[in-house]
Design brief:
The longest helix has 16 residues. Helix content is 31%, strand content 29%. A hairpin with a 5-residue loop joins β2 and β3. Strands 1-2-3-4-5-7-6 form a seven-stranded mixed β-sheet.
Length: 190
């Protein structure tokens, strides 16, 4: 594989992001969606995250082709959850097993850290112990913090959802940082 680079996603990447996600929905169990969202819906999702100041990244090869993407977004919408975000990462089928996912996640973790969040959570569909997503998050230091057994049904089988968590910026050992993105948005009533 030619040299890979991680950069912020742009609107021009949404077509390829939609293709990658469509494959994950149709052929995988990481997403519990059963029908791939249309391009317009993926654009709305992208715009909403970016408007909220959340990181949205793509991995590209030397030719500029998008190999995968990752983003962080709100874990829940109630204000007390403002210091915790949920990650998502998807890799194109032809790029799996080449380190794209781990590089995207490393960059995403750093972006989330820089914004001042305290917890990054992975909500992993098909959270079987050997799943690629579980192994990826374990490599990055995420701890297992819960399992919902039989929470999804897809491709004719029951799936467990696994919750994993990574503490950032001192986690619960420090008071909120008034300069962090979540605290600034909360104080401004955004």
């Amino acid at each position: 594989m030619s040299k890979m680079m991680i950069r912020e996603a742009t609107v021009t990447d949404i077509d390829r992001i939609t293709e990658i996600y469509s494959d994950a929905v149709l052929n995988g169990t990481a997403s519990y969606e059963l029908e791939p969202p249309a391009l317009a819906e993926m654009r709305v999702r992208y715009d909403t995250l970016r408007a909220g100041g959340f990181p949205y990244l793509v991995a590209v090869d030397g030719s500029g082709a998008v190999l995968g993407y990752a983003y962080a977004g709100p874990f829940r919408t109630r204000p007390a959850y403002r210091f915790i975000v949920e990650d998502s990462v998807y890799v194109a089928p032809e790029a799996k097993g080449r380190g794209v996912g781990i590089e995207l996640m490393r960059a995403l973790i750093e972006a989330v850290r820089q914004l001042g969040f305290r917890q990054l959570v992975a909500v992993i569909g098909d959270g079987s112990p050997g799943s690629a997503s579980v192994r990826l998050h374990e490599k990055l230091g995420f701890c297992h913090c819960g399992r919902l057994q039989g929470s999804g049904y897809k491709h004719d089988r029951w799936l467990d959802t696994v919750f994993m968590q990574l503490e950032l910026n001192g986690g619960i050992s420090r008071e909120p940082d008034a300069h962090s993105l979540p605290e600034r948005k909360f104080r401004q009533g955004v």
